[in-house]
């Protein structure tokens, strides 16, 4: 089903950016400058929305389509592209955006045509839906697990891999006792941080994994 893959919702929004030749700083440049300063880890505004698997904001200048017979097609304006994969339904997610990260939303979308702001949540939700396109391709690794379930699974997977590498060749009784200690440690650990880079989440390549939050 379009926009939905299992329990994960795929949101794609294209908002036309204001074209004002008299602006001291063009609206598309203002968006780019603001996005460049946003953190990409657990401090990301979208990490505050705990149901977010991945979120991306980008300014699209133009799209050239060469069909048959060959011809060029161009956009009538520049667009702000917002993509997100999240758990749950669209209305709840949009309401949470308006309530949890209002200043960040206003800082970006105030440069877009027709943006009503977030004070009127109903108007904000209607605007975002008006700019929505159907999503048929998803970035989420899984479609039936929540963000927290996925982060926890990655943590356990990495911990077990490290355990195996560290205990090769040891007597079975020692391995069993050490594994019980590991499982007890995992049970007592606090929930993973969305968008965070954890030492326990390093795969064999040595690169820290990230799940949840802003991309």
Summarize the structure.
By secondary structure, this protein is of the alpha+beta class. The chain has helices at 27-36, 90-100, 102-109, 121-130, 147-166, 172-188; strands at residues 4-5, 8-16, 52-60, 79-87, 132-133.
- The CATH architecture of the largest domain comes to 2-Layer Sandwich
SS class:
alpha+beta
Low-confidence stretches: 198-215
Q: Helix share of residues?
A: 25-40%
Question: Which radius of gyration do the C-alpha atoms yield?
Answer: 22 Å
The number of domains: 2
Total of helices: 6
What name does CATH use for the topology of the largest domain?
Answer: Alpha-Beta Plaits
What's the shape? elongated
Q: Quick one: biggest sheet?
A: 5 strands, antiparallel
Average pLDDT rating: 81
How many strands?
5
Describe the structure.
The chain has 6 helices and 5 strands, in the order E-E-H-E-E-H-H-H-E-H-H. The longest helix is centred in the last third of the chain and has 20 residues, at 147-166. The protein folds into 2 domains: 4-133, Alpha-Beta Plaits (2-Layer Sandwich), CATH 3.30.70; 147-201, no CATH class. Strands 1, 2, 3, 4 and 5 form a 5-stranded antiparallel sheet that branches. Helix 2 crosses helix 4. Strand 1 (4-5) and strand 2 (8-16) form a beta hairpin. By secondary structure, it is α+β, with helices and mostly antiparallel strands.
What distinguishing features does this structure have?
single chain, 215 residues, alpha+beta, Alpha-Beta Plaits, 2 domains, 6 helices, 5 strands
Give the secondary structure arrangement, pairings included.
Blueprint: E1 4-5, E2 8-16, H1 27-36, E3 52-60, E4 79-87, H2 90-100, H3 102-109, H4 121-130, E5 132-133, H5 147-166, H6 172-188
Helix pairs in contact: 2-4
């Amino acid at each position: 089903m379009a926009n939905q893959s299992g329990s994960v919702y795929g949101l794609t929004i294209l908002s036309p950016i204001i074209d004002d030749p008299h602006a001291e700083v063009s609206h598309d440049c203002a968006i780019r400058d603001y996005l460049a300063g946003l953190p990409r880890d657990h401090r990301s505004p979208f990490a505050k929305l705990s149901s977010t698997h991945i979120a991306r904001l980008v300014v699209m200048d133009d799209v050239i389509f060469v069909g048959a017979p060959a011809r060029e097609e161009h956009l009538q304006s520049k667009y702000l592209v917002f993509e997100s994969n999240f758990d749950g339904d669209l209305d709840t997610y949009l309401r949470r955006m308006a309530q949890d990260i209002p200043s960040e939303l206003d800082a970006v979308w105030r440069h877009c045509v027709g943006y009503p702001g977030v004070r009127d949540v109903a108007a904000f939700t209607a605007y975002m839906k008006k700019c929505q396109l159907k999503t048929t391709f998803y970035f989420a690794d899984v479609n039936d697990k929540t963000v927290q379930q996925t982060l926890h699974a990655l943590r356990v997977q990495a911990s077990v891999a490290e355990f195996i590498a560290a205990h090769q060749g040891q007597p079975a009784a020692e391995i069993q006792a050490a594994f019980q200690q590991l499982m007890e440690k995992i049970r007592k650990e606090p929930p993973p941080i969305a968008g965070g880079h954890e030492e326990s989440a390093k795969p064999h390549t040595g690169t820290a994994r990230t799940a949840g939050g802003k991309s």
